[in-house]
Amino acid sequence: MPHRWGMAVDLDTCTGCGACVTACHAENNIPTVGPEQAARGRAMHWLRVERYWEGDFPDVRLKFRPVMCQQCDAAPCEPVCPTYASHHTADGLNAQVYNRCIGTRYCANACPYNVRFFEFFNPQWPKPLHLQLNPDVSVREVGVMEKCTFCVQRINAASIDAKAEKRELKDGDIKPACVQGCSVKAMAFGDLDDPESEVSRLSRSPRGGKLLDDLGTRPKVTYLARQTQV
Amino acid sequence: MSEASSRKLSEDLLRPLLETSWRFYALVAFLGSIVLMGLVTWAYQMFNGFGVTGINNPIFWAFYITNFVFWIGISHAGTLISAILRLVNAGWRRPVTRCAEVITAFALMIGAMFPLIHLGRPWLFFWLMPYPNSRQIWPNFRSPLVWDFFAISTYLTGSVLFLVLPMIPDFALVRDRTTGWRHRVYGTLALGWQGTTKQWHRLETAMQIMAIAIIPVAVSVHTIVSFDFSMAVVPGWHSTIFGPYFVAGAIFSGIAALIIAMAALRKVLHLEDYLHPVHFQNLGKLLLMMSLLWAYFVFSERLTSWYGNGTSEMAVFWALQRGSYAPLYWTMVICNFVIPFPILALRQTRTIAGCVTASCFVVVGMWLERFLIVVPSLGHKYLPYSWGPYRPSPVEIMIMISTFAAMALLYTLFSKFVPIISIWELKVGEHPFPAETPAEIKEHPLWQVRP
């Protein structure tokens, strides 16, 4: 039975600690580029925590928004790829086939969320980070695009386990690294086609909203936040 | 035309082929070394990784794509202009057409290099093409980059044919006037041309077909290049005006390049008897018209963005109008309109020197225009958190310089091996027996109405 994987992030709970970013780096073998390259705009964070300040000093509110690939249903990155490296899976994920990517970077331009990243150099990990590479995730070579996969390796592993045990996947069987790492349980992941799942319930919340909803990309990530009356 | 003047014409125009001075070798060595440096730089980029360029997140396209659009634009000089002039039978086109068509062929070849240079993994470029493979994977026909591949290869094939067809009688002329290896080489190139009535008839028919076919192809090519941008939901890119705007800009920069090339040829190859001030004046008028058209398009594009007042559109708008890109933006306006317009509008300044000056400004201005379309939009997408600046690296600048040198080198070599002015067409134009020309293909100067 096909699924439709989605995520919900509660911005009122998020403390901006960055544990999700670290977890994502560790899980997905994302290279750390060092301060010099980061200053030149080459930092790679499949998941980033955007910080926004509201109001004037001293009455300032700081807001955080973890932004990862929104896994759009109508993804602008997919039709522009000349080689189908960026394509839609049956589960509704925006997959990136690294081996098929030739690095036109068109997908990164088309993406309104700027969540696609380019390997500017062959990746390197300063010691001892090279000892913690995840064997379930391929390491990308120079010249290809990459992005958040919703931890597809975990989705596949859980699906295989469920199949081996001859049962259906339960809500909560799959936890992407960011969801698992979140210290305040601000993130939820699951099947949007299952109306009982936690993520479905949160996505229906009146506090929910999509990022850049008016572009018509139909993202599968819902952000929950206090709605202010305008 | 008398026998003597016909001989003088052939001798004047064949002299560059048969006599070579040390200056030619010096120029070729100079330009060749710059091109070589560019190739070495590209190899350096492939070896070390794309990070040696100034590309960053979010400016994923910058100098290389700017140059790609710029050179494809320059390529509209030739084939399009010469095809239109042929179809309207403008008599003054005769010495101009070949210089123009060569620009098209070479600018396209250079422009088509840039999408490859800009690939993250250029060694896999052939995945852009449909070719039989064991995995039965096609390229993605929904991608504008694949449309680019088809548009550019069609245009390149068409314009090379359009260039080579009228060269055949000239190759035959060179064949008949030379001995030794030249005789053999040009004999092969002449494809057995004997100058029979049937051959002339076929040549004229083929030229007519190509001239008609190449115009829609040329228009479609730059429209498709503009689709690379307008198909993406990026503020400043997602615009319906981009197709005609790009085509107009392309013809604009193409005419400017043609004027510069013609002036250089006139000076270096001593073609004062063939490229007259009137040619520059006529092309200057065309350039003037395109400058006005360009200004009109920019005005429409800017005004609709401003009036629409979309949040993200306005970020790009102000970045150009008075933000960090404002110096470049206003330089572009000055180069493309403020300076060329008075120079080309006044008869006293529409001289050869005036036209060349205006053209140089236009080439710079049009390059900036391409840059300002590509980069500021990427730097000001929807989420302000991911805005970013761009600064080109020496690698990108070196590769850009080397392509200008490549253009000059190819042009130099071409004018060495092929008569840069179509000899037979000049002779036909000065035909002494107008009565022999059928009325329907008789030439009319531009200022006369067809009967």
Characterization of this structure:
The complex is a heterodimer of chains A (230) and B (451). Chain A has helices at residues 19-27, 34-39, 77-80, 106-110, 152-164, 177-181, 198-203, and strands spanning 5-10, 48-54, 61-67, 86-88, 94-96, 116-118, 145-147, 187-191, 208-209, 221-224. By secondary structure, chain A is α+β, with helices and mostly antiparallel strands. Chain A has a four-stranded mixed sheet. In chain A, strands 2-3 form a two-stranded antiparallel ribbon. In chain A, a hairpin with a 5-residue loop joins strand 4 and strand 5. Chain A is globular and about 45 Å long. Chain A starts with a strand and ends in a 6-residue tail after the last strand. Chain B is mainly α and 451 residues long. The longest helix of chain B has 34 residues, at 197-230. Mean pLDDT of chain B is 89; it is low at 432-436 and 446-451. Classes of the chains: A alpha+beta (230), B mainly alpha (451). Chains A and B meet through strand 2 and helix 4 of A and helix 6 of B.
Secondary-structure content class of chain A: alpha+beta
Strand tally of chain A, please?
10
Main beta sheet of chain B, described?
none
**Class computed from helices, strands and strand pairing of chain B:** mainly alpha
Mean of the pLDDT scores of chain A?
92
Query: Helices and strands of chain A, in N-to-C order?
Result: EHHEEHEEHEEHHEHEE
The proportion of strand residues of chain B reads under 5%
The first-level CATH class name of chain A: Alpha Beta
Q: How many helices of chain A does DSSP assign?
A: 7
From the 3D structure, determine the CATH topology of chain A: Alpha-Beta Plaits
Q: How many E-type strands of chain B? A: 0
Rounded to the nearest angstrom, the distance between the terminal CA atoms of chain B is 25 Å
Shape of chain A: globular
